[in-house]
């Protein structure tokens, strides 16, 4: 029986696995983590609105009933397209007949890897916990700080990058400061927290038409976000971010920095023996293969795919559609039939900004504000995997909406002491 | 205005703070973590049944409306009872007029601190995440293991200590293996997992009467737990636990070990200048003061208190009652009135074992099995802090009960690779 290996159980890999559910194949799903993550809501975990289990589901459980499939929690360290095999982190080698690489993307610091510890990005649950801890700890530090200048540094939050994640983070941070934490501190006023969104280009949400970008900027400013476009970050350290704009260089005193400026494709792309693009993405044929290898498909954020001569965006609907096409093409080729050409169906774009604030584009229709936000809410809860998660997320959000409380305000680390036993000494990452 | 410092926001500290809500006092609540933890359900987080936010609530939020109180997330490193001050981890010093020490307890490895990394205990959310990760990873490792002997080592779970936590952990581990993970693996059968409960004394749940202990043992065995009493652990390493019993020494090949055998009082007790008992607890007067200091109260697990000539057990109802009495005694003494004597009200004891299995003792009434389990369920959901948490926990449990699924099966770490960027390399703790 032909063996199909799928690397990565994100939206693309999962869609491919499901499309092959009834196929006469042996499938191995390999993922480094044990869960499929509903990444569009990851910023809610980072901002203490949702718990991790609400937006993640164990891969084994999702795919348990697919009897032709084995789930392997493992890291792929090498791909040999000539020898048709994949190497895992423990040195074991798995042969494949067909390979789907859906390894996704990661943060890019544009050559400034030293910034990663200072300004974490948001791709995994661990990233979300780290950011949640930093945000909540910043308010705790501010409360204890006696020096006014340093206190304001703790109360200044900087989000770098005005794409979808950056805008969501900035909008939600303001909500936390103005509503969630209101009345809980004695030495500081959380309302006095500043949230600065720094974007290199001239507008936020650059993937949208200029008029919607402008709507987004207006809504951000109305919420209380200090939006600074045309500002390219040149330096980050523990207490400041420096950026260059037409005025020269500016310095911003801030102790919490979140990175959402750059995305790079998974380094696994470079293992496929074809030239990758500037973002590390792998060029694929209209059938989603790599050049010279009809048995190797690349899908999702890792693929530089074209549809109708236009580049396919790195969004979850595109990944799902690619997953299905790659899966069907494997079946077609095994059956000796002609594979299909990938055509991206664009159902529209949606970006949330904060409470009652969003922008949306569906076909020729553009809208923003409360209606867009309601639409965003509906779409995201609807697409969340699993009936249970949907119910739980809805309950969490209803609670948050009516009470302004956030349900996941847990810092799992504790303050270190000298007095306690070594086994209990947990460092607060800072 | 007199200044009251409360160290620790567990059940005791929180009850004391609430009792002082309307008092003409300035109160500072100091805790190393940002949340009050509903510790009786912590084993559910460790076994992937509940998410962390479901059993924890931000201290600031709980106490926000108490205008005479300031919350400080900080670690106390020193207490000076003569100078009436407390030192924090950043070197700052706070003076008090009255002090309530409610710093609780931690694990004790009976002089074998080297076991702490091999056999984590369960006191904090971080502990729970660590244990959850180890349990879920053990099944993942077993699935990938080709050597039959090693595979069985991965599928053998050892719980050391047959107190309440140990019994809960063992019962729930069997449920995970037999029900939750059923049908999700291809190379192993999770049913073949073994759960061994090792207890040094002759019976489990030694705080209960012998007939209830026997009921507990029967229920554990019926669930599928291998109960080994009269077995004193003498050695732990990565692949085995060795214990001594009347037959001599026995070796058990196991790769996941959970420690619930020993409890030691917080090391802060030693800072009070009085002699502590063997478990590190601080002897207190009937008014809950330490000898020679009417302004220093010790409550909860840290206190060696007596009531009617009998030692007060280290359980949450006792901690709450002590918290209230200590708080009232502060008010009485400020008013120049006689402080009250602590009398422990024993409302009964309850221990859950697993699905439909528990034992209970209320007054002279003893019962076990399904009725005890239903009673346990009701009591625990009822006492969970916060309306929202109660609803969420009930929903989680209803879901788990009817589907055998567990909602928090997330391992937040990923498999490490060489290929990925350093910022993404997260070690799986093992």
TrEMBL record, chains A, B:
Domain named External alternative NADH-ubiquinone oxidoreductase-like C-terminal: residues: 348-402
Reaction(s) the record says it catalyses: a quinone + NADH + H(+) = a quinol + NAD(+)
Membrane-crossing residue ranges in chain numbering: 370-387
InterPro entries the record matches: FAD/NAD-bd_sf, FAD/NAD-binding_dom, NDH-2, NDH2-like_C
UniProt KW Oxidoreductase keyword: yes
SUPFAM superfamilies for this protein: FAD/NAD(P)-binding domain
Family, similarity comment: Belongs to the NADH dehydrogenase family.
Lineage start: Bacteria, Pseudomonadati, Pseudomonadota, Betaproteobacteria, Burkholderiales
UniProt protein name: NADH:ubiquinone reductase (non-electrogenic)
Main enzyme class: oxidoreductase
Keywords: FAD, Flavoprotein, Membrane, NAD, Oxidoreductase, Transit peptide, Transmembrane, Transmembrane helix
EC code: 1.6.5.9
Domain FAD/NAD(P)-binding, first and last residues per copy: 3-323
Keyword Flavoprotein: yes
């Amino acid at each position: 029986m032909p063996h199909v290996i799928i690397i990565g159980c994100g939206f693309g890999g999962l869609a491919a696995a499901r499309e092959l559910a009834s196929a006469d194949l042996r499938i191995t799903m390999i993922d480094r983590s044990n869960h499929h993550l509903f990444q569009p809501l990851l910023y809610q975990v980072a901002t203490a609105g949702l718990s991790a289990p609400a937006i993640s589901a164990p891969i084994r459980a999702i795919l348990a009933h697919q009897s032709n499939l084995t789930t392997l929690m493992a890291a792929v360290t090498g791909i040999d397209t000539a020898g048709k095999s994949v190497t895992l982190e423990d040195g074991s080698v798995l042969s494949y007949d067909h390979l789907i690489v859906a390894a996704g993307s990661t943060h890019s610091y544009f050559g400034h890897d030293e910034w990663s510890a200072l300004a974490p990005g948001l791709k995994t649950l661990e990233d979300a916990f780290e950011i949640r801890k930093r945000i909540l700890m910043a308010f705790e530090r501010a409360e204890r700080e006696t020096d006014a200048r340093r206190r304001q540094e703790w109360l200044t939050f900087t989000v770098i990058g005005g794409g979808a994640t950056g805008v969501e983070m900035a909008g939600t941070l303001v909500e936390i400061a103005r509503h969630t934490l209101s009345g809980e501190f004695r030495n500081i006023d959380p309302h006095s927290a500043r949230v600065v969104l720094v974007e290199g280009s001239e507008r936020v949400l650059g993937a949208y038409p200029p008029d919607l970008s402008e709507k987004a900027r207006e809504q951000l400013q109305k919420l209380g976000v200090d939006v600074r476009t045309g500002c390219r970050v040149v330096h980050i350290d523990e207490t400041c971010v420096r950026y260059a704009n037409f005025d020269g260089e500016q310095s911003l005193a801030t102790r919490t920095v979140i990175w959402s400026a750059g995305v790079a494709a998974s380094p696994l792309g470079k293992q496929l023996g074809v030239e990758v693009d500037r973002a590390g993405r792998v060029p694929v044929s209209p059938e989603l293969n790599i050049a010279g290898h009809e048995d190797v498909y690349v899908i999702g954020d890792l693929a530089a795919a074209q549809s109708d001569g236009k580049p396919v965006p790195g969004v979850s609907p595109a990944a799902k559609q690619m997953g299905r096409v790659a899966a069907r093409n494997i079946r077609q080729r095994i059956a000796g039939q002609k594979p299909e050409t990938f055509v991206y169906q664009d159902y529209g774009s949606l970006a949330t900004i904060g409470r009652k604030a969003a922008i949306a584009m569906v076909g020729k229709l553009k809208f923003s504000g409360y209606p867009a936000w309601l639409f965003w809410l509906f779409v995201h809860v609807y697409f969340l995997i699993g009936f249970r998660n949907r119910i739980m997320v809805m309950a969490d959000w209803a609670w948050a909406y009516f009470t302004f409380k956030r349900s996941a305000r847990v810092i799992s680390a504790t303050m270190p002491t000298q007095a306690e036993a070594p086994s209990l000494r947990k460092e607060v990452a800072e």
